[in-house]
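Supplementary Methods. Inverse-folding protocol.

Structures were first reduced to a discrete structure-token string of length 319. This string, shown here, constituted the complete conditioning input.
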């Protein structure tokens, strides 16, 4: 590398510590938690060719790498505090690094989440971010809390990231302006941190949608020991996706993956509180079904007709 490892870290990934007691530069970072709070932590890795296309702009890649991690904090209702960045780079390309660092800190600052450390090495492009957040004991939203008769909601609109992927693969036809719009969904998802925080004490369970609605809902069902009935036609989608054949709409909304919206449950008595939380977080939420005591998934259309369950979830070792 022309630019040395330490210069690279100093130039692109070091900023004065803010909330952290100690940031980048020593063997460990030191974080001061609000007394009595629990630390929520998660990490997610992005691998070229697996999670992103080689053509993605570096600022968008950085955004997404952090966004998918913030989305995990959101799903727990945790308030972001800090993150670490482990980066393998083929070469120290300063134009690339400047754009990457710009995209990274733009999203980090929007959520007041501080970069406190990491690791940098030469190798095939690989980005692994670890996030830290805090939540009061007993307040974290879990996958395991769904109860029979709870309503099932999702935030935002689902399926556009998958539609973008299919457009790039050439399996669907999309107009140029539509491609630009769905590409934003794929490359720059907005983690629903404010919604997760607003749903503390309101939602009975939550998960963020990374592997497709039905697969992720299956996680909630398993962990909660319940079943669910979903109205496939109620799942919110963009106008771009709604212009596609119904089979494409269903595949993208039900099994698309990479949505980074929240799926959550709440008792019917909390419906107004859910609306208030969504309004506070300035995110649309839509009721798409109901939790059932009997195990298994019942998928139906708007007319109540049962739909065949042909929608799998994304599995890195099966696809
Ligand atoms: P060590 O060998 O003790 O793990 P390193 O030499 O790898 O430390 O890193 C030096 C400092 O720079 C550490 O504080 C580390 O957390 C930080 N660091 C390394 N890479 C990054 C990065 N990509 N982003 C932020 N901080 C980083
Ligand atoms: Mg050390």
């Amino acid at each position: 590398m022309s630019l040395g490892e330490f210069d690279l870290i100093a130039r692109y990934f070091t900023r004065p510590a803010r909330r952290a007691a100690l940031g980048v530069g020593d063997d460990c970072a030191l974080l001061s938690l609000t007394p009595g709070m629990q630390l929520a932590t998660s990490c997610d890795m992005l691998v070229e060719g697996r999670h992103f296309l080689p053509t993605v702009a570096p600022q968008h890649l950085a955004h997404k790498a952090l966004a998918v991690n913030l989305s995990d904090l959101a799903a727990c209702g945790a308030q972001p505090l800090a993150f670490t960045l482990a980066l393998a780079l083929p070469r120290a390309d300063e134009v690339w690094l400047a754009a990457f660092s710009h995209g990274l800190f733009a999203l980090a600052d929007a959520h007041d989440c501080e970069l406190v450390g990491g690791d940098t090495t030469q190798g095939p492009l690989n980005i692994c971010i670890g996030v830290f957040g805090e939540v009061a004991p007993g307040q974290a939203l879990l996958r395991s809390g769904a109860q029979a008769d709870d309503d099932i909601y999702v935030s935002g609109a689902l399926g556009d990231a998958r539609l973008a992927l299919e457009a790039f693969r050439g399996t669907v036809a999309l107009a140029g302006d539509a491609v630009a719009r769905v590409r934003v969904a794929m490359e720059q998802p907005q983690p629903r941190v404010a919604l997760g925080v607003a749903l503390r004490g309101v939602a009975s369970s939550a998960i963020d949608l990374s592997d497709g609605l039905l697969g992720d809902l299956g996680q909630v069902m398993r962990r909660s020991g319940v079943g669910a009935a979903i109205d496939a036609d109620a799942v919110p989608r963009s106008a771009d996706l709604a212009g596609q054949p119904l089979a494409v709409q269903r595949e993208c909304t039900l099994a698309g993956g990479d949505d980074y919206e929240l799926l959550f449950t709440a008792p019917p008595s909390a419906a107004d509180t859910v609306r208030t939380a969504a309004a506070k977080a300035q995110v649309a939420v839509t009721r798409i079904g109901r939790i059932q005591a009997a195990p298994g998934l019942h998928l139906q259309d708007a007319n109540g007709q049962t739909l065949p369950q042909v929608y799998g979830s994304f599995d890195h070792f099966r696809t």
